[in-house]
Design a protein that fits this description.
The strands form two sheets. The protein has a six-stranded parallel beta sheet with strand order 1-2-5-6-7-8. It is an alpha/beta fold. The chain is globular, with a radius of gyration of 23 Å. It contains 16 helices and eight strands.
């Protein structure tokens, strides 16, 4: 069993820590050499944003509120209102700040001209992190990455849906995407494939989710992805993690689906968030299950360990309801749990049954 085999000895290995710091330095120096002028400009903007936290709130309001209406005049009026109340964010470049001040003064007079220019600028600024989903555009991007030897995990934007018609449309879109020869790995959240998730109706919820996740697992298994070197590999679907409420339901859906008859030899992936204290316990549970699955002749599964992306939402919801905070309250605890989960995952007996994926924006974590 995983619990009996694991001993986290040497967690403070000075040689390992020194080697990780040295490697991080080398990677950073090389990254600085390769950085393009556009990347340097964007990094400078991020640095200025960190120095002016209030500007981040303004940016969120701009992206969240301005483009909801399809009417150019209403969008222009909303953007002008935000700029009038909050001011032009200081992290923008001098040229961009000048353009925004010009929009603030004249944008509502020619909204049909001004708003398309604003939208095009927003797309340009986010082009390196948010890709268009139109088949011909995303296919070209994925082909280019494959030629570079970069493997991609496609995560379609769009969070919880409100009705079953939309859930069925999302599921159909995911199944269609798996038939795209350029897509190797895809992540989905349970809230995008079932609209009636309920912790009180747990068994019913898990059963419905299993039915839908099984469709995705079987569809992925039918499609091979041809890598740059010409080798064929089965496609992979991850169950992505969202909020704390969905943690145990997501894990249960993952295991129950892959325990179904005919799926024993198929693989799939799941994500766990290190900023949730419960994640390490769920990792141990998943690993024990996966080890038993392999001992019974089943296929290994994949686990991607992340820090977590929904911290602000978790804090806001907890404060509104008077709940205890679900996530760790400081970065040190999250970082420590991340390393604990990583060390547990890399125990040889565990790694054979649960193939590990490392996800982090932190250079020191990657070097470690």
């Amino acid at each position: 069993m995983a619990d009996e085999a694991y001993r986290d000895e040497g967690a403070e290995d000075p040689e390992l820590i020194a080697a990780a710091v040295a490697l991080a330095r080398r990677i950073q120096e090389r990254a600085n050499q390769l950085q393009t002028p556009g990347e340097r400009r964007q990094q400078a903007e991020f640095d200025r944003m960190l120095q002016h936290p209030a500007d981040k709130a303004t940016l969120v309001q701009m992206t969240d509120q301005t483009f909801r209406s399809k009417a150019a005049r209403r969008s222009a009026e909303q953007l002008t209102h935000i700029l009038d109340v909050q001011g032009v964010p200081r992290f923008f470049s001098p040229i961009d700040r000048t353009l925004l001040r010009g929009f603030q003064s004249f944008g509502t007079y020619l909204p049909g001209v001004a708003m398309p220019l604003v939208k095009e600028k927003m797309k340009e600024e986010t082009a390196n992190v948010v890709l268009p989903a139109e088949p011909e555009l995303i296919a070209a991007h994925l082909r280019a990455r494959r030629e570079e030897g970069v493997r991609m995990n496609v995560n379609f934007l769009g969070e919880a849906i409100l009705g079953e018609l939309e859930a069925e449309r999302r599921l159909e879109a995911y199944l269609a995407a798996l038939q795209n020869p350029e897509i190797e790995v895809m992540s989905v959240k349970i809230s995008t494939i079932f609209s009636q998730i309920s912790t009180l109706a747990r068994e019913s919820t898990v059963s419905r989710l299993c039915d839908r996740f099984e469709l995705l697992v079987r569809a992925a298994a039918k499609q091979d992805f041809i890598r740059k070197d010409g080798t064929a590999a089965p496609k992979l679907v991850y169950l992505d993690m969202e909020e704390y409420r969905d943690l145990s339901i997501t894990v249960e859906t993952f295991m129950q689906t892959l325990d179904r008859p005919g799926l024993e030899h198929l693989g799939a992936g799941i994500v766990l968030q290190a900023y949730i204290p419960d994640s390490f316990g769920q990792q141990r549970r998943l690993t024990e299950w996966a080890v038993r699955r392999m001992e019974g002749g089943g296929a290994p599964v994949t686990l991607r360990i992340v820090k977590g992306a929904n911290l602000e939402m978790e804090r806001l919801e907890a404060s509104q309801h008077g709940w205890p905070q679900a996530a760790f309250q400081n970065k040190q605890s999250t970082d420590a749990n991340y390393k604990r989960m990583l060390r547990f995952a890399l125990v040889p007996n565990h790694a054979r049954a649960v193939q590990i994926g490392i996800a982090s924006h932190n250079l020191f974590e990657l070097a470690y």
